[in-house]
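User: Run a structure prediction on this.
Assistant: Running it now.
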Amino acid sequence: MTPRKRKRALLLRPLAAKTSSAAALGGAATLQNPPLSPELCEVSPPVDSILPERSIRKPEKAKTNAPRLTKQSDRLFPGGAALFQRMFTRLGCEGRPPRFHVEFYPYTNLVLTIRRREEAVFVRFSDLLRQCALPVLEGAAALLLARIYRRRAPKVLVQPYLDYARSQRTRQRIQRMRRSRVRPAATNPQGLHFDLAPLFESLNQKFFRGTLSRPHLGWSTRGWRRQFGCYDPGPNQILLNRRMDHPLVPQFVVEYVLYHEMLHVKHPTRRAGCSLISHSREFRAEEKLFPQFDRARRFLDRLAR
């Protein structure tokens, strides 16, 4: 009996808040470690978004300027196959060890991917890990293998990678990398009914004493059902849902969503213990200073239904 061809993929993006969540295997799966809070949507790297109730979706992707590594030597991971062989044995994975093909790749975030095809396993590590210590690389390999072979990786083994991924220094490196690799989406702050540029200046003077530098502003190129705005600190960009650029949407609702994203500019995501906090107490307190906060939230809840 010929074994069926199997293809499994795993993406690890350790970018959000609190504990990890499981992702289904088979085809492609995504794990964000730790998971997202009800009103936070974070992708490569943390992107702060405003969402109603408990819905979560990915914000619109910005274009990338990631360098193309055409030479195999540029992607080489010296000793990568041997490292995965050791972790395969240490985790007690069943069966004969596959052939491991491991390389670095210029992702726009701290991303790890693994795909299993018959007797070979193909692994890509973000090139941010190129200069990392061996325990960090071993922890990343153990996380990938544990997921695809359904094993429980010892905490002492994976903790060095988790500490590295959640550290403020790593987050700063990610932001610097994204500034060079990610271009802001080609959008215009002038919509059909609302111009975000004067709204930003008005809110900046009223609530921030004119201290915020203006990021790239624009409307999403497609309508989002439940996400109304997002701030991506990499390309320094605020996008608002184009569904709000409508004559039936009150201006104070657009101003509130824009104000929320401006607060993310003022209060960046920070680490607190083992968690990453995007909506701190200071953030929430300032958010409620918006004069029509309750009315705007109720309108957005109705719009999301």
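The chain has a mean pLDDT of 78.
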